[in-house]
Amino acid sequence: MLSRKKAFEKIAQTDIWDVVVIGGGATGMGIAVDAANRGFKVLLLEKNDFAKGTSSRSTKLVHGGVRYLAQGNLKLVIEALSERGFLLANAPHLTRLQAFIIPTYRYFDQLFYASGLLLYDALAGKLSLSRTKLLSKKSLVQLMPSIHGKGLKGGIVYADGQFDDARLVMSLALTANDLGGVVLNYANVTALKKNDGKVSGVAFIDEESNKTYEIASKSVINATGVFVDSILDMDDKSSPAAVMPSQGVHLVINREFFPSDHALMIPKTRDGRVLFAVPWKNAVVLGTTDTPLQEISEEPSALNEEIDFILEHFNQYNEKKITKDDIKSVFAGLRPLVKTSNNKSTALASRDHTIIVSSSNLITITGGKWTTYRKMAKDALNNAVFVAKLPIVKCATRSLRLHGYTENIQASSALSIYGSDAKEIQQMINEDVSMGERIHPDHAYTKAELIWSIRNEMALQVEDILARRSRILFVDAAAAIASVEKVASIMANELKKDNQWIQQQIALFTELAKGYLP
Ligand SMILES: Cc1cc2nc3c(=O)[nH]c(=O)nc-3n(C[C@H](O)[C@H](O)[C@H](O)COP(=O)(O)OP(=O)(O)OC[C@H]3O[C@@H](n4cnc5c(N)ncnc54)[C@H](O)[C@@H]3O)c2cc1C
Questions:
Q1: For 280, which of 342, 393, 457, 496 is 20 to 30 Å away at the CA?
Q2: Which domains does the chain show, CATH number per domain?
Q3: Best mutation site among 84, 224, 330 for ligand 1, i.e. most ligand atoms within 8 A of its Cβ?
Q4: Cα(224) to centroid of ligand 1, in Å?
């Protein structure tokens, strides 16, 4: 399991790494897993907590992207559909099949979308989930009772995947660690080391101790999402911008407003995109938007017009109308879209990934989707192997089971996301009933899970627990704020921190969480 102490011991013992990865989101973590699985000495450094960036702020769909099909990007759809199949098979504890419904109000639309979705199924080949069917109005209303009924003709049901993004990053971190790789959070890369103009390592600050470390490596991969330009800048001040950031916002509401196990897919928004309402945990996630941004931030915040846009579209399709007051949490994420000179709009910009090999041999990867993280990792690592002349070992992550893999998933159990680790958490509860206490009465997350994450998943701050190890902040911001004192005091006890630390954590988290209130 993860341990900062062991990570620093390995750092002290290792003269030179084969691969250093900067960035602990989906892309970086995927690379760390692949590198460790190929037998390379790999170190991953994440400035904040794992998955603090875009990778905890997605719509949480493992999908080929029906929208990209409409845009004619068959290559991306085929690749993503294959990756969807691999991910569903390799991480059954964190992914699940999700049925989606497109309601139609014109018979022509029903045929149009059905033919597109049949093609979508066919493109998945052997990995097809083959669930596309036409729905009559009557059966649609039975499956989705709150759907707007006036003029409804019927609809189409199809299947895709759904997952818990931040938990999947944790599972990847644990997988990399199981395979001998080292991952470290709160490790901020501040400089690239060079030898004869070629990148030979990095310097990083451990944000816990404030100490600076210098690391030698045969290759360095920049997987920092929307922040790739800051690392490219460290390499060469004249590097052109690689990323064009675009913000996407999600609103989270109670299930009572949308009482269906099926997700809603709104096929055409005012700006020509799609919008989803997806059941997730004990809530429903609505989103998303696509707003080009000039400034990037670690805590992006929703614009009022983005919130209004989502409310307006959802209310058009749902009988139970919602207002801002019904929102439990608002979260925003930044897409690291590949910058090209001919992009007219971020909504039309390609979701493909790109790899830049700088003359210094720095490898930068950006763009892509969560769903395709494994393929992105493979491509980035193949480039690193080539430039650093590492031994050629075939990528074998396609069928690599991720940490926690188990065939006996009890989806109804709140501990199922831990997969095979769930029994150890259950054991903690069996040995001490107080461990089964909920952190907040409305959410199933227990004290045992909190302590488990401190001991095994490098959770260091209150935010790590409330935002990413549990997802309380993302489903219910007010409940997260109400839990802050309890979480801070349990953490202080476990991490041997004093009262000043508790007060500081309460203030920091409360301030941050206010940004998730509508
Ligand atoms: C609104 C929205 C919805 C989305 N929905 C989906 C979806 O449903 N399905 C799907 O497949 N994809 C989806 N995506 C895309 C997907 O989420 C992203 O492609 C993916 O998460 C990007 O991961 P990443 O690792 O490249 O970036 P990030 O997750 O942002 O990770 C980069 C990391 O680098 C770290 N970092 C930065 N600078 C440094 C430094 N100097 N030193 C060390 N670390 C550093 C950051 O702290 C950050 O954690 C969505 C994206 C958005 C924005």
A1: 457
A2: 4-54+166-241+347-388 (3.50.50.60), 94-162+244-338 (3.30.9.10), 416-514 (1.10.8.870)
A3: 224
A4: 8
